[in-house]
Design goal:
- With 162 residues, the chain is an alpha+beta fold.
- The chain contains one helix and eleven strands.
- The strands form two sheets. The protein has a six-stranded antiparallel beta sheet, with no helix packed on it.
- The protein is elongated.
- The N and C termini lie far apart (72 Å).
């Protein structure tokens, strides 16, 4: 009887190992497809004219270890801009430390608000963890994953050299 139990346990462990490898490969392929989608769209949809061409709010990349983002890349903010790893986000951040739907910046009247969407690694504003929607002020630094952005209410006021 114990020999049969040992054989069963071996096959069960082997099955668990194959399932783990299957899910790991599936997860990697899904991330690679998302990266390919970002690359096919011309890396990250930064505006070539820089922040000076925006009439409303923008975020500018200050620093980050993500190759798709370069310091000075600027992104105009709409009424509701989502940031995350998913291809559904307006600003796609291909970083393992970023959730699929990580954060959102919304405009309510004349203010922009930063909201974390329940991300695993958190969203930080000026090195403070965002737990509820926070009103953004000129020059606030937003850290999502390995990328640090700087907020500006008006595009021409950003100095990426700060």
């Amino acid at each position: 009887m114990p020999a049969i139990v040992l054989v069963f346990l071996r096959y069960f462990f082997l099955l668990l190992l194959y399932l783990f490898i299957f899910y790991l490969v599936r997860w990697m392929v899904r991330d690679l497809k998302a990266l390919a989608k970002v690359g096919a769209a011309g890396e990250v949809p930064a505006v070539p004219g820089g922040p000076a061409c925006f009439k409303d709010g923008a975020i500018v990349v200050l620093d980050g270890a993500v190759p798709a983002f370069k310091p000075g890349d600027a992104f105009e903010l709409g009424a509701g801009t989502t940031l995350g790893r998913s291809g559904e986000s307006e600003i796609i951040i291909p970083d393992d430390f970023v959730s699929k739907h990580h954060a959102r910046i919304i405009r309510n009247k004349d203010r922009y608000w930063l909201e974390d969407l329940g991300s695993a690694n958190g969203t930080y504003i000026n090195d403070t963890l965002v737990k509820q929607p926070v009103a953004l002020s000129e020059g606030d630094r937003i850290r999502i994953g390995k990328v640090i952005f700087q907020f500006t209410g008006w595009g021409h006021e950003v100095d990426p050299g700060n």
